[in-house]
Amino acid sequence: PDLIKIDVEGAEQYVLKGIGESLIKNKPAIFVEMHSGKELGIEENTRIVLAWCKEHAYQPFYLKNGTLLK
């Protein structure tokens, strides 16, 4: 696929961890809608997702204003 959309109400980190290496090598665009979950607040969830982006050479952007997240 060229685009993967993830909207899983606070379980984003689990979906990203489950994406296979062969898929990552093809570098599809990944749209992640972020939420807090029962076990994880939004700050920690965001930290984990940003770490995944860094590990896999993805650049995360805040869609509302196009700001690169660091």
Strand percentage lies at 15-25%
Give the termini separation.
26 Å
Q: Structural class, please?
A: alpha+beta
Silhouette? globular
Tell me about this structure.
The chain has 70 residues and is α+β, with helices and mostly antiparallel strands. It has helices at 12-18, 21-25, 42-55, and strands spanning 3-6, 29-32, 61-62, 67-68. The strands form two sheets. It has a two-stranded parallel ribbon with strand order 1-2. β3 (61-62) and β4 (67-68) form a beta hairpin. α1 runs parallel beside α3 (42-55). The N and C termini lie far apart (26 Å).
Notable features of this structure?
70 residues, alpha+beta, two-stranded parallel ribbon, two-stranded antiparallel sheet, 17% strand
SSE order and pairing:
Blueprint: E1 3-6, H1 12-18, H2 21-25, E2 29-32, H3 42-55, E3 61-62, E4 67-68
Parallel strand pairs: 1-2
Antiparallel strand pairs: 3-4
Summary, kept brief:
This protein has helices at about 10-20, 20-25, 40-55, and strands spanning about 5, 30, 60, 65-70. It is α+β, with helices and mostly antiparallel strands and about 70 residues long.
